[in-house]
């Protein structure tokens, strides 16, 4: 049933709904379209939060667009984690900062303990709050029993617990 060509055509039309002709585009055009959505995902998310019933907001409800936005967001989160782990914000100040900024950075490095979170770390904190909020919403939407039946939710809970533990430590 699922392998039948008519069913596959129906599933593809549902999956790519909102992007007419996407499957017929060349590889270069597909990559450009995907890259455009990936780069503009914060703008799309803001539009969806502010005006969910506008044309762009309706497009954001389509399965393929949801997939692209979620994947782009998570890749951006991983990129920010890489930057935080490499102390990229300090390197940015060392390379492009003014002498005052470099002096403040040197003073901060002398008192490593108790250092306030950097801007990149605050972005990570916002993402973790979003991950926790997403799980809380899912619990309210499907109920606790149904939530606990899905093993993927245990992985999400463990991931969120580890993020929160690291932030607390």
Tally of individual helices: 10
Give the number of domains.
Answer: 2
Low-confidence stretches: none
- Into which percentage range does the β-strand content fall? under 5%
Mean pLDDT: 85
- Overall 3D form: extended
Largest sheet: none
Helix content: over 70%
Please provide the ordered H/E string of secondary-structure elements.
HHHHHHHHHH
- Tell me how many strands there are: 0
Radius of gyration based on Cα positions = 21 Å
* N- and C-termini, Cα separation: 52 Å
**Structural class assignment:** mainly alpha
Would you mind describing this structure in some detail?
The chain has helices spanning 5-15, 27-39, 41-50, 55-59, 63-85, 88-96, 99-110, 119-142, 144-149, 151-168. With 169 residues, the chain is mostly helical. It has two domains: 1-70, no CATH class; 117-168.
Condensed summary:
This protein is mainly alpha-helical and 169 residues long. The protein has helices spanning 5-15, 27-39, 41-50, 55-59, 63-85, 88-96, 99-110, 119-142, 144-149, 151-168. The protein has 2 domains: 1-70, no CATH class; 117-168.
Main attributes of the structure:
169 residues, mainly alpha, receptor
Topology overview:
Blueprint (H helix, E strand, L loop, with lengths): L4 H11 L11 H13 L1 H10 L4 H5 L3 H23 L2 H9 L2 H12 L8 H24 L1 H6 L1 H18 L1
